[in-house]
Amino acid sequence: xxxxxxxxxxxxxxxxxxxxxxxxxxxxxxxxxxxxxxxxxxxxxxxxxxxxxxxxxxxxxxxxxxxxxxxxxxxxxxxxxxxxxxxxxxxxxxxxxxxxxxxxxxxxxxxxxxxxxxxxxxxxxxxxxxxxxxxxxxxxxxxxxxxxxxxxxxxxxxxxxxxxxxxxxxxxxxxxxxxxxxxxxxxxxxxxxxxxxxxxxxxxxxxxxxxxxxxxxxxxxxxxxxxxxxxxxxxxxxxxxxxxxxxxxxxxxxxxxxxxxxxxxxxxxxxxxxxxxxxxxxxxxxxxxxxxxxxxxxxxxxxxxxxxxxxxxxxxxxxxxxxxxxxxxxxxxxxxxxxxxxxxxxxxxxxxxxxxxxxxxxxxxxxxxxxxxxxxxxxxxxxxxxxxxx
Length: 390
Description:
- The protein is of the alpha/beta class and 390 residues long.
- The chain is built from 13 helices and 12 strands.
- Helix 8 links the parallel strand 5 and strand 6 (196-200).
């Protein structure tokens, strides 16, 4: 059978997150701080809109582009919130989460051996999806820059084969984000070299300490940006699988061609629910955001007390934690913590081979669960591996 499977797929490593969490399945009393999924249930009025759409008999296909009602709502939302103009007619495509949107844009723009620049640590799918599309992922190590892409380091990685930069902020796994000033400096480099920016802003609504700036709002950036966003994280709608891509109509049209042959359309029930989210979901988003911020303070303060250094995230719901002083690599740390204290975290190598001395902790778990998990981590450090406190 091996000869039947594509060599490209054979050579691809399974997701570092999913491979590790196969170990968690079936274990009792485990506190999971691993999977990046809100612990909140989708707000009721959004669920009700989905239920009501079924009761009214909305069970058909939609346009390949997605429900016009939803595209119009997205267009109005972006205009009102960010003064960002996208036509619902030909500049917005509804996708099966941001994951499909990313896959579509990469397959749309990549010719064989084109390079896609990816700040690292990075979300697990960026590199593999680039390779599946025939491109070459080029990882930019940002560890010495506080996990931020800078204009200087970006310049070093640009050559004639560089086609696009994937920029994810607030970022998974670090939770870092960028001010408008920082983004403007990056944009100048992108425009200078005529690159495309694929801007994954799925955590935009979960920005804590300053206003989120969409990359497409920067001077001259809109025509060189594909803006990706969705409903999974901010509206706690992971299982509904609704994302969207906005960009130049030529790129969106090309993405739609692939989408219509592979997916056809996002389920109409999910699209109806997403439409309601944009109408009445803001209050729920703000409530969840306040709780995530409260949890962030607990987790960061306690980890630093325990001697596990981490940069305070400015968005999303992740902390990227240095375990260098423990003497363990990331997989050993995660496996021992799971076995001995029943706390699940993600090894840093899931987000790049250079991050074997880091783990990712998600604080998308209840406040009480987080307190208990942190107590168990303290016990693990002091009792199980003899790691001294600061």
